Amino acid sequence: AFSPTQKYVVSVGSQHDMIVNVWDWRAGLKVASNKVSTKVKAISFAENGSYFVTVGNRHVKFWYLEYHRGSKYKEPVPLMGRSAILGEQRNNDFVDVACGRGETADSTYTITRSGLLCEFNNRRLLDKWVELRTTSANCMTLGEHRIFIGCADGIVRCFDPHTLQFITTLPRTHYLGVDVAQGLDISHMSSHPKKAKYPDAIAVTYDERNMKLTCVYNDHSLYIWDVRDIKRVGKSHSYLYHSACIWGVEMFPEGSLPHVPPGSFVTCSSDDTIRVWNVDPQFKTHPGTVYQRNIYSKELIKVIYVDPELNSLKDIELAGGEKAENPAAYDGKNGVRALRISPDGKHLASGDRAGNIRVHDVETLDEICLIEAHDAEVLCLEYNRYSHGKKFLASASRDRLVHVFDVEEDYNFVQTLDDHSSSITA
């Protein structure tokens, strides 16, 4: 964290060194340091720059900077730290902190993982707290008159920093598994299925001058909310991205099909989705096709969800750097690993990490074929050039086999080549 004057920057090492350092970064000097007893999850500087606050599990500590400013020596001095008086909240996991601004500059606000918003006074005493009514609180940001807190299930709540009174809850984002191409006007955002699930808000920042709140969610989507009228919060911008690493990118053949906007391309990812994009701001979509410019994202025009359970859309790693209980979950069989568009632009073939090959009709994006082809992940797919009569699709896998399929015979199996002794990557 930078101090308000930008003179100092504070860094905290976790796990191996557990030290808080204060640097005069322009001079390249470490001016103060001290040990910390627990993993620090967040830091915030007081508005006047005289102290900063760190938080973590059962940890809220105020660190004071004033005394070393007059030091003539180049050696770092011990950083003076004082623990907050937590009272009955001493066993909580504090995940974020923000020091007050303006009239509330003497106050420090923290949130707990369990869903409490706490206020500490200038004597480091826990003054008051309110329940956020959420399963998990993840992040916070504030201005002089607003505190915004990002919570689980797409919830962002707003409170008054003077009184900790609840003001409003922001609108929900898209639900997981939304068909973006159906979102032709803003009313689509308010019509959600009954058992819809939502991404968790994991980072928030407030631009007080322009009255904009930017939120990042754990499906890697980003929303900018207009909070000028806090009782009628509106969406300013939104962007929907892949939730995990991208394994393949393919351009649609130019002029192949009238219903695919020119310049469109398709990507596949470990999040078990295939996404169709177009970054031309002038492109036009044809009404009645599956590819539509929509209210959710300027560039994203269609999503194919390969996993109906949508298990890989949310980041498994939790906010605050906490590891999930099952770190091997991403190393499982989820994810679309390879894709290829046929030369005539009519078929989209994809291979997943479980060894299955799917073929979608590009016009309707209906799945027209599912082949349980390999015993390990499909690493590459290739169509032959259609100008030579017969039409074939070849697939190669980590199981060391190459399979060939006849496109015109509903992708019937033709031949296996087993000459390789290790994974086939191209």
Give an overview of the whole structure.
By secondary structure, the protein is mainly β. The protein is 0% helix and 41% strand. The protein has a 4-stranded mixed sheet with strand order 1-2-3-7, with no helix packed on it. The protein is elongated. The two termini are 45 Å apart. 38% of the residues are buried. The model has no long low-confidence stretch (mean pLDDT 91). This is WD repeat-containing protein 55 homolog. Residues 333-384 form the Anaphase-promoting complex subunit 4-like WD40 domain. Pfam families: ANAPC4_WD40 (PF12894), WD40 (PF00400).
Outline:
With 426 residues, the chain is mainly β. It is built from no helices and 32 strands.
Task: List its salient traits.
426 residues, mainly beta, Methylamine Dehydrogenase, Chain H, four-stranded mixed β-sheet, four-stranded antiparallel β-sheet, Apc4-like_WD40_dom, WD40_rpt, WD repeat-containing protein 55 homolog
